[in-house]
Amino acid sequence: MKEAEFKSGFVTLIGRTNVGKSTLVNLLVGEKVAAIANKVQTTRTAIKGIVNRENSQIVFTDTPGIHKPKTKLNETMVETSFTSLADADVVLFLIEATSEDIGRGDSIILEKIKEAKRKTILIINKIDLVKREKLLNLIELYSKEYNFEAVIPISATNLKYKEIILEEIEKNLKPGPAYYDVEEYTDQTLRQLAEETIREKALKLLQDEVPHGIYVEVEKMKQRKNKKGEEIYDIEATIYCLRESHKGIIIGKNGEMLKRIGRAARIDMEENFGLKINLKTWVKVKPDWQSNDSIVNKFKLK
């Protein structure tokens, strides 16, 4: 029997803010590569997650959610999402099952998909929230708009959908080489992963008080051995915010909130990096960072 030909390709996840793209990419990759918080605009850059299968390598790009830009940062985020469509072999277009019709944001995404003429799989997330009839209406509505390779209704937190989606993607890939080492699951550096992790914990713990006005920068990252001979990373990071009042909220009474953010980030990083972390965090005010070119450019698609 002829051995199956090895396939590879790039898959872009696109959708409005907060539809579950990062949750889905983490589910498919099986590792935590994208920040997840129950907030809009959690993902700021196009993050790559790598899935190595027996006969394929799938490279996922999780893009920022499509929203109406209000700052230079927001403009860059939206631009990054649409730019990534051009490089995709397959597009995963994520929508919510609770949608009544095709809203403005989803219409814009559909137009961009039509322009890019890419193979697209429609993923309908959060199906646990609607009745079957509503779901069927939504499938019919979208199927009239574009010739999707497949329509897959899912709940992004449920592992049983992982194989179904990966199989469908693999079917639509062309023969090609592995672009990354099979041991890798992301193209992000440890420094970027550390920044993402701290930012995610801050977003989760701060609720809506300091929504998206934070930016994390790892100033120092050094590996050493402790007295027991264990590998340890010393990480020093600064959380930048827009206002003095935000700084007070992030630090919290007697520094409690900052300690909680640091503790949660450290536990996550130790699990992800596989070694001990010594994390120190500071908070500084930088009122105009969302319009600062040198910072905003970090979020552009490389």
Could you describe the 3D structure shown?
The chain is of the alpha/beta class and 302 residues long. The protein has 2 domains: 7-175, Rossmann fold, CATH 3.40.50.300; 190-299, GMP Synthetase, Chain A, domain 3 (2-Layer Sandwich). It has 9 helices and 10 strands. It has helices at residues 21-29, 72-86, 104-116, 132-143, 161-171, 190-206, 244-251, 256-273, 293-296; strands at residues 7-15, 47-53, 56-62, 90-96, 119-125, 150-153, 174-175, 215-225, 231-241, 276-285. The strands form 2 sheets. Strands 1, 2, 3, 4, 5, 6 and 7 form a 7-stranded mixed β-sheet that branches. A hairpin with a 2-residue loop joins strand 2 (47-53) and strand 3. Helix 6 crosses helix 8 (256-273). The longest helix is centred in the last third of the chain and has 18 residues, at 256-273. The termini are far apart.
Could you list some keywords that capture this structure?
302 residues; alpha/beta; Rossmann fold; GMP Synthetase, Chain A, domain 3; 2 domains; 3-stranded mixed β-sheet; 9 helices; 10 strands; 35% helix; globular
